[in-house]
TrEMBL record:
Residues 114-329 form the Peptidase C1A papain C-terminal domain. InterPro entries: Granulin, Granulin_sf, Papain-like_cys_pep_sf, Pept_asp_AS, Pept_cys_AS, Pept_his_AS, Peptidase_C1A, Peptidase_C1A_C. Keywords: Cell membrane, Disulfide bond, Glycoprotein, Hydrolase, Membrane, Protease, Signal, Thiol protease, Vacuole. Residues 29-86 form the Cathepsin propeptide inhibitor domain. This is Cysteine protease. It comes from the Eukaryota. It holds the Pfam family Granulin. GO terms for molecular function: cysteine-type endopeptidase activity. Belongs to the peptidase C1 family. GO terms for cellular component: extracellular space; lysosome; plasma membrane. PROSITE patterns: THIOL_PROTEASE_ASN, THIOL_PROTEASE_CYS, THIOL_PROTEASE_HIS. GO terms for biological process: programmed cell death involved in cell development; proteolysis involved in protein catabolic process.
Length: 431
């Protein structure tokens, strides 16, 4: 009933707008859909999104007409989402976990003299902006960003690290797409003796099973981490002068959703619900700001970045940015590259090549009598004994010879078609 009530309200608002305004917003919406590649499942859904877009249009227009604002808003790629929808899908920081953080030893020494401005992007210590999608794993992006930064500073090599490994495998306290805290991500990497690369363990924007074959592919290590005292903006500045720093903020303000450019100054709550990365600082027209890297893609903000006011006079900082900050530490070198993986052992007498998966082709009384090799790593073996599916398309549809995966909302499947057939060499069809 709630959706239909909203659709009716949308129709009412559109019908009773001045005709020219309705026409202009509708035309603008069509242009926006084309620009952002948006399409909808039905005319009803499109009308609903038009109503949301029109409401966001009014909010953006009202803000941008203010005379004293230090930042502007825009109809970015999230302009067809209600503020509630956006908050549910794009946050994921769990500040309550900080109550369980271990007491850390004496924090590392920080530089006393800091430059007037600094941008770690210009020093090669920041990877490209990433997009968490509809997965509340901002904590993992903040953590990998900080580890990428300190690794580059210490080794000279900028390596994009795997958020998905943290989402799937760091489960002692963190909850994947359900939220987490950067400190526990650092602790996981320390305990695991390193973390894999983004390229080897790619992001899926959903919770998955821990790929244990990837856990020992430790390309980058850290030695520890440090927490900056809450509400100590001076110490935070010193830390950022040394390396990129993870912080919690309030990212649930409506203006945050539609931010475009300028120095964001609020109004903003200081109740933390989002995690980002500070990659530098500067000043403009006498106003000091932090350079904040977000994980909402390059279509948000200034190519994925925001300038957020610092030295605001509030000890907690704008959006609580001074309240909960931490960073990884590194003194030891990374491990040498792992040797190429050896054959995959199926049984005492049978094995598959490196990077392949053993699948049982014939069973008797629960014992496998015959093995075949799927030409994919960590694949899912189908029950028909003739096909396999990629780990990220784990549902076998043997009737149609397809591999499927469940979407985030669980209402539909996406299809990856069988592109090869079984050969005489005994290998299974691979996708």
């Amino acid at each position: 009933m709630g959706n239909y009530a909203f659709h009716f309200l949308t129709l009412f608002l559109l019908l009773f707008r001045p005709l020219s305004a309705t026409s202009n917003v509708s035309e603008l919406f069509e242009i926006w859909c084309t620009e952002h590649g948006k399409s909808y499942s039905s005319a009803e859904e499109k009308l609903y999104r038009l109503g949301v877009f029109a409401d966001n249009y009014e909010f953006v227009t009202h803000h941008n007409n203010l005379d004293n604002s230090s930042y502007t808003l825009s109809l970015n790629s999230y302009a067809d989402l209600t503020h509630h929808e956006f908050k549910v899908s794009r946050l994921g920081f769990s500040p309550a976990l900080r109550n369980f953080r271990p007491v850390l030893p004496q924090e590392p020494s920080l530089p006393r003299d800091v430059p007037d401005s600094l941008d770690w992007r210009k020093k090669g210590a920041v990877t490209a902006v990433k997009d968490q999608g509809s997965c509340g794993a901002c904590w993992s992006f903040s953590a990998t960003g900080a580890m990428e930064g300190i690794n580059q500073i210490m080794t000279g090599s900028l390596i994009s690290l795997s958020e998905q490994e943290l989402i799937d495998c760091d489960r002692s306290y963190n909850s994947g797409c359900g939220g987490g805290l950067m400190d526990y991500a650092y602790q996981f990497v320390i305990s695991n003796h390193g973390i894999d690369t983004e390229n080897d363990y790619p992001y899926q924007a959903r919770d998955g099973s821990c790929r244990k074959d990837k856990l020992q592919r430790n390309v980058v290590t850290i030695d520890g981490y440090a927490d900056i005292p809450s509400n100590d903006e001076g110490k935070l500045l010193q830390a950022v002068a040394a390396q990129p720093v993870s912080v919690g903020i309030c990212g649930s303000e409506r203006a945050f959703q539609l931010y475009s450019k300028g120095i964001f100054s609020g109004p903003c709550s200081t109740s933390l619900d989002h995690a980002v990365l500070i990659v530098g600082y500067g000043s403009e027209n006498g106003v000091d700001y932090w350079i904040v890297k977000n994980s909402w893609g390059k279509s948000w903000g200034m190519d994925g970045y925001m300038h957020m006011q610092r030295n605001s006079g509030n000890s907690e900082g704008v959006c609580g940015i001074n309240k909960l900050a931490s960073y990884p530490t590194k003194t030891n070198p990374n491990p040498p590259p792992s040797p190429p993986p050896g054959p995959t052992k199926c049984s005492i007498l049978t094995s598959c090549a490196a990077g392949e998966t053993c699948c049982c082709a014939k069973k008797f009384l629960g014992l496998c009598l015959s093995w075949k090799c799927c030409g994919l790593s960590s694949a899912v073996c189908c029950k028909d004994g003739r096909h396999c599916c990629p780990f990220d398309y784990p549902i076998c549809d043997t009737d149609r010879n397809l591999c499927l995966k469940q979407t985030m909302n669980g209402t539909r499947t996406e299809i990856l078609e069988n592109r090869s057939s079984s050969g005489s060499s005994g290998t299974w069809s691979s996708f």
